[in-house]
C-alpha cells in the first residue's frame, strides 16, 4: 500500500504537496487513493479500506503533534448539512469537539436538509449560513456532509480566503469541484467489500439484494455507488427508496424475495417508529439483513459500520493545523479508514443462521 509520502502523482485536479509540518505525521496515516477527485476508480478506494490496527494510536499521535495551545483564541464555525439529533451528525460533532477542546471559539449552524430535502430550503439555509459567516468572521470553517458543500461552499466559498475543512462527503469530491486552494477534508466511503466478504461466507450463492433507504439525495447517491460495486462482485442491487414508515414496511416485505436486504438509512423517513420497526422486522424477516450505519443495527442481523467520530476528529485536527499556519492545499483529501462489526443477536437467532466464527469474535453485540 502506498502512503501519502510516497505518492507523488496527480489524481484529477489534485496536486499533492509536502508540508514540513505534516509530512512526518501523515505519512503512515493517509491513503494514497484518497481524493477520488474525478477519475480514481471507486473500487480502488474501497479496496484500500483496510483498518490499521494502530489507527487510534496514530490519530492520537497526530492530535498531540498538531494541538498545542493556540497563542490566542481563534474562531471556528461548524456548518452541518443536517440537524442536531441525527445520529451520524451527532457522532461527527462528538469527534470534532473531543479534539478541539475549546482551543477555538466554536459556533454551530444546522441546515436541516435531511428533514427538509427541498432544494429551495437548502438554498435558503445556505444564504443564512453565509450571512452568519460574514457576521462571525471565523478563522476556519468546518462543514459536514454533502449539502453544505453543494449549496454553500461550492457556490459561495470556492477558492475564497476563508479556509474550509469538510467531512462526510459521500464517495467522491468530484461533483463539487474539489480540491479548492482553500479547502481539504475527509471523504465518507462505506466498507462495502468487508461487508460483501462476510455475506459471501454466510451465503456463498448470493446474487440479488434490495437496497432499502429513505428517498433523499444522499441515499440516491449512495445507491449508485453501492450498485456499481455490488455489480462488480456479481450481485444485482435493486433500490427501494421510501418517504414514510408505511412505505418502508411494504418495501421490507418486498425485500423477502431477495437473497438479502441492505437497510441503508432511516433518516428522512417520515413518522419513523423505532419499536414498531423492531417488532415488524422480528415478525416478518426471513432473509438476511445488513447495514453500514450503527443506528440501523436494531433492525438487521449484522453490520459493518462507518465511524462518524473519525470524520469529526480528522476535521478538527486539520482545522487546528490550519490555524497554526498550514495551507489547506498542502493537506491531502483522504477517505475514512475505521470501521466496526456489530451483531444483532435477537435477529440472528430468529433467522437461525450460522455466522463465521471470526465475525462473532470481533463483532460488538446488540442488544
Q: What does this entry look like structurally?
A:
With 367 residues, this protein is an alpha/beta fold. The protein has two domains: 4-189 and 308-337, 3-Layer(aba) Sandwich (Rossmann fold); 192-305 and 341-366, Rossmann fold (3-Layer(aba) Sandwich), CATH 3.40.50. Helix content is 39%, strand content 20%. It is built from 13 helices and 13 strands. The strands form two sheets. The protein has a seven-stranded mixed β-sheet, sandwiched between helices. Strands 2-1-3-4-5-11 form a six-stranded parallel β-sheet, with helices on both faces. Helix 3 runs parallel beside helix 11 and helix 4 packs parallel to helix 11 (308-323). The chain is elongated and about 60 Å long.
Secondary structure layout:
Layout: H1 23-26, H2 42-47, H3 55-66, E1 74-80, H4 87-100, E2 104-110, H5 119-136, E3 140-144, H6 146-157, E4 164-170, E5 183-188, H7 192-202, E6 208-214, H8 217-232, E7 236-242, H9 245-254, E8 260-265, H10 274-284, E9 288-291, E10 302-306, H11 308-323, E11 334-335, E12 339-344, H12 345-351, H13 357-362, E13 364-366
Parallel strand pairs: 1-2, 1-3, 3-4, 4-5, 5-11, 6-7, 6-8, 8-9, 9-10, 12-13
Antiparallel strand pairs: 10-12
